[in-house]
Amino acid sequence: MKKKNKRLITISKFFIFNLLRFLSLFINKNRNIWVFGEFYGENFTGNPKYFYLFLLKSQQQNIRPIWISNKKEIVNKIRKLKGEAYKTNSLKALYFGLIGKVYIFSHGIEDVGNYAVRNAFLVNLWHGMPIKNIKKFNQLKAEKISSLRRRKIELIQKLIKFECNGDYDIITATSELTAKTFESAFIKSPKRIAITGEPKNDIFFSKAREDVLKDYNLEKWISKTIVTYMPTFRDKKHPSISDINFWNKFKEFNYDIIFLLHWHPSDLLNKQMITTKTPFVYNANDLPIDVQELLLISNILVTDYSSCLIDYLLLNRPIVCFAYDLEEYLQYRGFLYDYSKIAPGEITKTKHETIEAIIKYIKNPEADKDKRERIKDLFHKHKNGNFSRNVFEAINNLITENNRRAI
Predict the structure, then answer these.
(1) Kind and range of the H or E run holding 121
(2) Which of 138, 195, 256, 352 has CA 20 to 30 A from 16's CA?
(3) CB–CB of 294/264 below 8 Å?
(4) Which pLDDT tens digit goes with each residue over 187-213?
């Protein structure tokens, strides 16, 4: 019975999606309707979130931003913010997807869950400037989503014979270096790679560390040194740093430290709480704080090959590159750049080296400042915020140019 129902749902989607694609050939798209989604409709985070909030707050030129999500709680959250949001496959979501002129997402068109994109502009804000290798887009499948959901997406794409293959109207980048990386990573070169910076990093310039802590009733941490460990995705445990003895080692010092451990959203093996006997260590995944806010409140970042490293450069604060499996990861995934040349701080391989590096930066936050500045110049053309406004101008310019050609 369940299999029969699933088959009926799949067939229904087939007809609905193809009907929408057919209708989109004849519908005049509304240039003021901008449709948003993120992480296959599962999240309200990252660049789409911050760009959506920018449009909601600034009310740019009567733009009507509309968020589409699989989750009712996300829809309700956005509505509480006085935004407009609808559940995926609801009549209104399908309608606005049909008439929307601009689609904005961070992974692929599946973020929005609507394929009526003919005559619309596709804008991929991406989900972080990569350090690790990224494959050709038609081979790039999100490592974060479950295999079941991936199979559903692939099936829908097969049924409706639709695949973007990197043929986006705009992909945003942060510098000439990252723009060249994106250009070489897609089967078809995007029509435009706009060096705008990432909207999610606007918060670094619009909000104070103390204000974020107060927002979450964490005023007691304002005077403390917050060290955040934020590694990239692993399909295995992180034995070198999830060992409780690593954190207990800091009890030997008199530093007023808070450690926050933030695992990748799909890093299920490492989400277990490990703070039973360590009151100064917290699992940040259990806090309601946004990832960018987490970076903002951190005095020192410990990471490895995660793109948060590139974000954090904008804050001009110390970074420890805990690369305990560097050689293994090089074979497994590989890097876009020489890791040793783009690491903006100490590269450590062991717990002891990591402790030493953290202590070094606690004692002297200005250590390796010149190195951080040099790497920041490589990865960031714009260094003072206004990234959302840059994205808006890039999209608006594209629409204006297209209208001129149509005359």
Answers:
(1) strand 121-124
(2) 138
(3) no
(4) 556 678 999 999 999 999 999 999 999
CATH number of 204-379: 3.40.50.12580
d(CA 142, CA 40) in angstroms, rounded, equals: 9
Q: Which residue has the higher pLDDT, 114 or 103?
A: 103
Q: What residues pair up with 233 in beta bridges, in sequence order? A: none
In the chain, the amino acid numbered 185 is A
Could you tell me where the beta strands, DSSP code E, fall in 190-344?
A: 193-195, 225-229, 257-261, 281-283, 300-303, 319-322
pTM of the predicted protein model: 0.86
Sheet holding 170-173, edge to edge: 84-87, 64-69, 30-36, 100-105, 121-124, 170-173, 193-195
Structure tokens at 150: 């991936």
Distance of CA 81 to the CA centre of its chain: 21
Question: DSSP string spanning 5-45?
Answer: HHHHHHHHHHHHHHHHHHHTTTSPPEEEEEEE--GGGT---
Pick the CATH number of 10-197+386-401 from 3.40.50.11710, 3.40.50.11820, 2.40.30.40, 1.20.1540.10: 3.40.50.11820
